[in-house]
Write a structure and sequence with these properties.
By secondary structure, the chain is α+β, with helices and mostly antiparallel strands. Helix content is about 25%, strand content about 25%. A hairpin with a 2-residue loop joins strand 12 (about 170-175) and strand 13 (about 180). Helix 5 (about 375-385) crosses helix 6 (about 395-415) and helix 7 (about 420-440) packs across helix 9 (about 480-495). The longest helix has 22 residues, at about 395-415. It starts with 19 loop residues before the first strand and ends with a strand.
């Protein structure tokens, strides 16, 4: 399921003479919930499900948001709650700009699955590009296990030797129209069954189950307001919100199928693919020779514009809403097409990105523009002080300064290419480039080190000052694509202006190459950095906040700085001849532009939100204003 064209060339250990290896981050935080065998490899640090990697200050797990659902896992009570919160959106007051001040979705556990067994432990068992597998286990045989993915149509939970136990914070009002309470009794069969649970908040949920067992009765009773099966169950239980009677028919039709794994591949610059691995609940009545029915899965608006097929959209349309990213439409994952979703970009989208992924602007300024705006004078003022160019402390501000100086070098080189300004500007260009080389080669007060806990490059300042908040949380993997993106871009500019310097200073080249690998390793085989640390191929943009828990879910935080990082890596790929990264970064920028800047992502009334903070892609659960 992997694509050779997405593999990073370098999967060797980071150079220990450049980056000292350390496990000292364990004194502050570590991925305590993952299985020991998974802890030996790279651990994702900025995924939508990242809240599950460690406990919060209260010793609990914060929510995750596999839209259109929200999932609340209680590691103490041994429960997994699935909620559809769109109808409970709370909007703040209108601010002076005429926009709502904020909106959020209050936490509410609509449908709760309980693992009624002793000494239950929560674990993150596995993950890939598009899914995460979690479990609540007791001993060797009793468990609840779930594979979650953005866009999942059902909350699918495998039960192992535990009763089916369902409850709700709102309370269950009825099951298939039968009032729920003391004396309630529902008769079913263990191999396959379904009913509709109506909650006191008015929501309806379809609950389906299936098991390899057959010929056995399965009864449900009311046990202290819990809908509970009379016997232990071994099989699959699925739940889905029922938005309408038409939706109920569709959900019943496709029940039993679910996504088990998902990997992204990219073979050309013109598109990318999701390779889904699907499973179907084992049902004795299903004919083994019959082709497996398609699996229902939701897409975001930007997916619809670049999917290469339209026949796999469900008819009649089934639409639910994500928390902050607009409507989601049900499509099919079909074994007839190899369980592959193929995405292709329009020629116009490709051309627009290609024009901007260059060192210089798409259009050169005219001589008249240069003269009227006194560009040479301003450039001279900046570069005449090059001897006093300094770098502020810290990787974030130092990187920003370096890219500023690199941009001045590019501008000087561009103006020196005009015969009208060559004599005046050429010496300035040489002075600026010389100073940039000197600054790029300056030693850092707190060198980056290689963290063997999560596998990545972090500042050593955290260990000197005993504070994970230094450098905006760099040591806990917050905003690496912003911090390192400035260094990568500045170095690419320098090498573009003087390619020979790459061989003259190989240590700097190796240092930058490792930064690129930290933020955007593409190799499944890379044992030293996680694949796609920041970029989410379903959402179409990166995520921030690192390994710290965020109750509202991860968010992008700064679209401009993310674009700058991908831009910088594209430039770096150009100067180093790394065609793999050129291809990869074009894909990232294309879907980022389509999903974010072109505005195809959300059909929320933008007039209500447009005056809010513009540079933050909303978190999974809320949006705030300035």
């Amino acid at each position: 399921m992997s694509s050779t064209k997405m593999q990073a060339a370098d999967t060797a250990p980071p150079d220990p003479t450049l980056f000292q290896y350390t496990n000292a981050l364990k004194q502050f935080i570590s991925p305590t919930t993952i299985l020991p065998e998974k802890a030996t490899g790279p651990v994702p640090t900025n995924k939508w499900w990242g809240n599950l990697l460690s406990l919060n200050a209260a010793g609990r797990l914060d929510p995750v948001y596999p839209s259109p659902y929200a999932v609340f896992i209680d590691n103490v009570a041994a429960t997994i709650a699935c909620s559809y919160l769109y109808d409970s959106m709370h909007q703040g007051p209108i601010n002076v700009n005429g926009a709502i001040s904020y909106y959020y979705f209050p936490r509410s556990s609509n449908l709760i699955f309980s693992c009624q067994a002793p000494s239950v432990q929560f674990s993150v068992e596995d993950w890939d590009d598009l899914t995460v597998q979690v479990s609540l286990t007791s001993g060797s045989s009793a468990f609840l296990r779930s594979v979650m993915a953005l866009g999942q149509a059902y909350m699918t939970i495998q039960h192992g030797d535990v009763p089916i136990c369902l409850s709700s914070e709102s309370g269950i009002a009825a099951v298939d129209g039968q009032p729920f309470g003391d004396g309630f009794l529902y008769h079913g069969q263990v191999d396959v069954g379904k009913f509709v649970v109506t909650l006191h908040n008015g929501q309806r949920w379809l609950v389906c189950w299936s098991s390899p067992a057959k010929g056995q009765a399965l009864t449900f009773t009311c046990d202290k307001q819990v809908l509970k099966s009379g016997a232990h169950f071994n099989g699959i239980v699925q739940a889905a919100i029922v938005a309408s009677d038409d939706a109920l028919q569709i959900l019943e039709q496709y029940a039993g199928g679910y996504v088990h794994r998902g990997v992204v591949t990219c073979d050309t610059v013109h598109g990318f693919q999701y390779h889904w691995e699907t499973r179907r609940a084992a049902v004795q009545s299903q004919q083994p020779t019959k082709a497996s029915p398609p699996v229902l899965h939701f897409v975001l608006e930007h997916h619809k514009s670049i999917l290469t097929f339209h026949s796999q959209a469900v008819v009649p349309a089934l639409t639910l809403h994500s928390h902050t990213r607009g409507p989601m439409t049900a499509y099919l994952i079909d074994s007839a097409s190899g369980n592959i979703w193929d995405f292709a970009f329009s020629e116009q989208d490709e051309q627009n990105v290609e024009r901007c992924a260059q060192f210089h602007a798409p259009r050169d300024p005219s001589v008249q523009d240069i003269v009227e705006n006194r560009l040479v004078d301003h450039l001279q003022d900046e570069i005449n002080t090059a001897a006093t160019w300094t770098l502020p402390p810290g990787y974030y501000f130092k990187g920003k300064a370096l890219q500023k100086y690199g941009s001045l070098c590019l501008l000087a080189a561009k103006l020196a290419s005009y015969k009208e300004f060559q004599t005046q500007v050429a010496p300035l260009a040489a002075t600026a480039l010389s100073k940039l080389k000197q600054l790029l080669d300056t030693a850092n007060e707190f060198p980056l080190c290689y963290d063997v806990v999560y596998k990545g490059l972090i500042t050593s300042e955290v260990f000197v000052k005993h504070d994970v908040n230094v450098e905006f949380g760099n040591a806990v993997y917050n905003d690496h694509h912003y911090h390192y993106g400035y260094f990568i871009t500045a170095a690419a500019m320098m090498y573009h202006l003087d390619p020979s310097y790459m061989t003259k200073n190989t240590r700097l080249c190796a240092w930058i190459e490792t930064l690129v690998r930290d933020v955007m390793s593409a190799s499944i085989a890379d044992a030293y950095f996680p694949r796609f640390r920041h970029f989410d191929w379903f959402l179409g943009h990166g995520l921030s906040h690192g390994v710290t828990s965020v109750v509202d879910g991860k968010d992008e935080e700064s679209t401009s700085e993310e674009i700058n990082c991908w831009y910088g890596i594209a430039l770096w790929a150009a100067v180093t001849g790394n065609t793999r990264y050129v291809l990869l970064l074009h894909q990232s920028v294309y879907i980022f532009v389509i999903g974010v800047f072109v505005g195809r992502e959300s059909k929320i009334d933008q007039s209500k939100h447009m005056n809010q903070r513009a540079n933050q892609i909303h978190s999974s659960n809320n949006s705030t204003s300035n």
